[in-house]
Design a protein that fits this description.
single chain; elongated; alpha/beta
């Protein structure tokens, strides 16, 4: 539960330190283990639903590797062309591999083949387990040889704990009916929940009034993106 007290503002940069592990403790440990250069790199593949935190983890591990002095690069699949960056000891993260075009799939396959000789670590992500990805068979095989983790989404208990911890950090008091209503009627991904909390905090300060259910309804109706 320690991570629930860290900087989880909606605009906070995606770092490993502010990823809420919840049911993903083993995955987070494997991500940290991938940061140092290894004699035999262990590639990772992360899969899960949209909003589960896959991109957060890939961006976070690239930031952590760069801070540790290791060359690192994050790429979205749509930005991959016929070649990928290659360098000794590079940590390369490729997000949403299901969106790779045919030429980009070949480029990623070649990167897997050359990774061991250059000490590169590949961390990739997708919307489904490798068996269910619509990719070249040789690339699916390479991805399937990685350590594979499902990024498990937060459950409602996790969300409630995070909301309560973040409210307490702001000096706010949220009645249980408010958080329950937010989970039932608002967007349930963590970024949207935190944005709603920010909006409630701002409205409460501006109006010099406590956070109430009518105020939450007003916020949700005012901004349909929350």
């Amino acid at each position: 539960m320690k991570q629930l007290t860290l900087d989880l503002r909606a605009d906070a940069p995606p770092l490993l330190e502010n990823f809420v592990a919840a049911s993903n403790a083993d995955l987070l440990a494997a991500i940290y283990e991938a940061i140092p250069v290894a004699d035999v790199p262990q590639h990772l593949f992360l899969w899960g639903d949209a909003g589960s935190g896959r991109s957060h983890l890939l961006r976070g591990v690239v930031t952590a590797a760069a801070q540790a002095g290791r060359p690192a690069c994050y790429m979205q699949a749509a930005d991959v062309a016929e070649t990928l960056p290659e360098a000794p000891a590079l940590l390369l993260a490729v997000d949403d591999v299901e969106d790779l075009n045919p030429e980009a799939q070949i480029a990623l396959f070649r990167a897997f083949n050359s990774a061991r000789g250059q000490g590169m670590t590949l961390i990739t992500s997708g919307c489904a387990a490798p068996l269910h990805l619509n990719l070249r068979e040789d690339l699916r095989t390479r991805i399937g040889q990685s350590l594979i983790f499902e990024v498990k989404a937060l459950n409602d208990d996790d969300r409630l704990l995070i909301l309560d911890a973040q409210a307490a950090a702001r000096g706010l008091r949220l009645d249980p009916e408010i958080t329950q209503y937010l989970l039932r009627h608002g967007r349930r991904d963590l970024t949207s929940l935190l944005r709603t909390l920010d909006a409630l905090d701002t409205a409460s300060l501006e109006r010099k009034r406590a956070i109430t259910l009518p105020l939450l309804r007003e916020i949700l109706q005012r901004d349909l993106n929350l």
